[in-house]
Each structure stands twice: as structure tokens, then as C-alpha cells.
Amino acid sequence: MKIPEQRIKIALQKSGRLTEHSLDLLARCGLKIRQSKDQLFCFGENMPIDLLLVRDDDIPELVSDDVCDLGIAGLNVIEEKRLTLCNADRPALFDQIYALDFGHCRLAIAAPEGGDYGGLRSLQNRRIATSYPALLKEFLEQHEIDAEIVNLSGAVEIAPRLGKADFICDLVSTGSTLAANQLREVQNVLASEAVIIQTRAPLSEFKEEWINRILQRLTGVQQVRESKYVMLHAPRSALDQIVDLLPGSESPTIVGLGGDDDKVAVHAVCRENVFWETLESLKRAGASSLLVLPIEKMLA
Ligand code: PRT
Ligand code: ZN
Fold first, then answer.
1. CATH placement of domain 8-103+194-224
2. Lower CB count within 10 Å: N or C terminus of the chain?
3. Mind listing the pLDDT tens digit for each residue in 249-300?
4. Is the CB of 105 under 6 A from ligand 1?
5. Residue with the nearest Cα to atom 43 of ligand 1?
6. Is ligand 1 within 6 A of the CB of residue 130?
7. Which is the closest atom of ligand 1 to the Cα of 157?
8. Residues around ligand 2, an ion, CB closer than 5 A
């Protein structure tokens, strides 16, 4: 009997703020894809992985229902759906397994500029417009505030001007949309970024192995983003001080220099960004021939 081919399905946002980053991340993990004519699927050409391109709001349920094994979406969308399913007595069957460090934003409450806002109590018995009713409800309950939630699917920021609400609760990144609508951020509700979720349905050994492999590569990609390879020459007498100055470096390699017994070459992977200030401090401590190189791939 022929065993059906097993392929891992990952749900991604089809077209939006997270699309490019999500595809780029998977490409950095080595995935090469071919997109279907209807642009709903991407077939992995070199790994048993296919991508399903959908609206971000559908991603949590696709993973919860085991249509997809993994999904990438904003924590705001994931948590809103998790609470909505939970309130409907249908616990979400997915786990958040990894934060991806892109798509950063926050769900925040904003008040009209010039209005008096004296802390959370000011929300009592007022109307708050949002597209995230479940997250807002949970937040208000946690802070024992009784307020009316006005559920809107879009254009939340104009609700106060239309007289539909007194406050809004919406996603903010730079804050310029709030400012353009004469609103000011007064309360953070949820800090969000893109995350990967995984279905709770049992997986075959084959799929589990591949998912672990992807996650390991993702960890490598994240580390590489911040890390640099630093090479320098150091006088033996200042070696300890110079090694201490290298940001986030573990046991650097130290080798002798041909024809110069007083100096050594130091090579180190620095797991934090290396700023000009650090290089200047290293130079002051006696380091010379400083080189900072990008790292392409890393596997711990
Ligand atoms: O079509 P689909 O349903 O898939 O997409 P969508 O329109 O629902 O989502 P999309 O592409 O706008 O955002 C996808 C995800 O990106 C969100 O769920 C968040 O996790 C994340 N994200 C990051 C943001 C923002 N930053 C952001 N700034 N989502 C929305 N915004 C909005 C914000 O509310 C404001 O209206 O962008 C506008 C500009 O923000 P400011 O603060 O920079 O002015
Ligand atoms: Zn959406």
C-alpha cells in the first residue's frame, strides 16, 4: 500500500502587513516555493512544506481545526480568537510556540485629545469602540470596569468624532493614525508581535521532526539577525579587559600572531549588536585591526 505523502501546512497572511516578513523568514529557513495560479497555495519545492495564504483572521481557526499544522499571525489576532472560542465553549486547540520579532504593535485604549482622562476609572460606564471585543472585555473585567463595548469591524478611530463612542481600543504602531484623528493613547491593553502557533492535534513522527527542524532554523535566523562576528588584534596585557568589552560573546577564540609575541588575534561571535561606541571603547583599551562581519547562518 502506498503511504500518502505527508506535507506540513503553514497558514500565512495572504496580503497584508505580515506577508512579506513571513515569506522572507521561511525563505531564510531555506524554503523555496512555487505559488499556485490562484495564489492561494505555495508549494514547497525543496521541503515537505506547503503554505496556505489566507486572511489573518482565519489563521487561528485553521490551526485549531487541524487544517493547518502551523500558522503565523499577530498575537492580537491569536488572542482575540482564543478568547472568542473560549467564550463560545470551544477551547482553542492550538499553542503559541514562538514569537517572531516582527509586526510589533500594541492594542491600546485612546481618548479624544483635550478630554479629561484621569486613569482607568474614567472608562467606567463609558462607550469604547473596538474590533477586539474579547480582548477588551477581558481587560475591563480584570480591572473591574463596567463599560459598553461598541463592536466595529473597521474605521474604529473615527468612532468618537461620529459620536458612536467615547474612547477607542485599537492597534497602534507609530501613533500617527491616532494623532491624525485627534486621539491620544492612554492605556496599553496588549503588546503584540507576529507569533507561530501549532495545532494541538497529534502529529506523525515525520511531521514532528520537520516542525522541530523548522523551529531550530527559525531560532538560528533570529540569532543571526542580532549577531556579528568580530575580529581584532589585542595586546596580551589588555586581553581580559578587551574580551569583557565584547557584547554578548561567549568564549572567544584567541590565536597567536606570527612575528608578534605581545599581541593575539581575538575572534568572537557577539550575540548583540556591535555599535560604534563599543568599537571605540575596544580601541581605547588597546585593540587594533577591528573588523565586524555579518553572519549568514548559525546552528547551535
Ligand atoms: O486582510 P487581512 O484581514 O489579512 O489583514 P488586516 O487588514 O486585518 O491586517 P493588517 O495587514 O493591517 O495587519 C496584520 C497584523 O499586523 C495585525 O494583526 C497586527 O498584528 C500587525 N500590525 C503591526 C498592525 C500594525 N502594526 C498597525 N499599525 N496592524 C494594524 N496597524 C494599523 C493601526 O491600527 C493603524 O490604523 O495601522 C494603522 C497605522 O498605525 P500607526 O500607529 O503607525 O499610525
Ligand atoms: Zn484581518
1. 3.40.190.10
2. N
3. 778 999 999 888 899 999 999 988 788 999 999 999 999 999 999 999 888 7
4. yes
5. 174
6. no
7. 36
8. 56-57
Please state, in angstroms and rounded to a whole number, the distance separating the CA atoms of residues 27 and 43: 13
CATH number for the segment(s) 105-191 = 3.40.190.10
Listed in sequence order, the DSSP H helices in 196-294 are 205-226, 239-245, 276-284
* Per-residue pLDDT tens over the stretch 58-71: 999 999 999 999 99
CA angle centred on 199, ends 189 and 70, rounded to 5°: 80
Task: Indicate the pLDDT class of residue 3, thresholds 50, 70 and 90.
Answer: low
Distance 74 CA to ligand 1 centre (A): 9
Mean pLDDT over the full length of the chain? 94
Which residue, by CA, sits nearest to atom 13 of ligand 1?
17
Provide the whole-model pTM: 0.89
Check if 8-103+194-224 and 105-191 are the same fold: yes
**Taking a C-beta distance cutoff of 8 angstroms, is the pair 250, 195 a contact?**
no
Q: Is the beta carbon of 172 within 6 A of some atom in ligand 1?
A: yes
CATH assignment of 228-294? 3.30.70.120
Domain definitions of the chain by residue range: 8-103+194-224, 105-191, 228-294
The DSSP bridge partners found for residue 259 are: none
